[in-house]
Specification:
F151B protein, four-stranded mixed sheet, Menorin_dom, 19% strand, single chain, alpha/beta
Length: 102
């Protein structure tokens, strides 16, 4: 159903008493947690949801945490997930397709 993922996230945070009412506006976000430093900052923060971007290194390599026009990062997807998995925070990953223009 449309919006089901967001309702499930709100219900999760309500059930764990991380928000006081069933209100999506109460959910706090940390955006662009791509680098190791930003991922660490997000993991230690009091936000509910962490958003980051995934693309293939150099356009065809390993998945890394970066937002175009960047094509590389100090953080792979695997490293990022290991950092975030134990935080009890929700995640939103934006998978980017790097297109080279000439």
């Amino acid at each position: 159903a449309a919006g089901a993922w967001s309702e499930a996230a709100v219900d999760h945070f309500l059930r764990w008493q991380r928000i006081g009412a069933r209100d999506g506006a109460a959910v706090r976000w940390f955006h662009a947690a791509n680098s190791k430093a930003r991922a660490r900052e997000a993991a230690r923060s009091d936000v509910h949801m962490i958003e980051a971007d995934v693309l293939l290194r150099g356009g065809n390599g390993d998945p890394v945490m970066a937002h175009p026009p960047e094509t590389d990062s100090d953080n792979t997807l695997e490293e990022w997930l290991k950092e975030i998995v134990s935080t009890n925070k929700g995640i939103k990953l934006d998978f980017k397709r790097y297109l080279e223009t000439r």
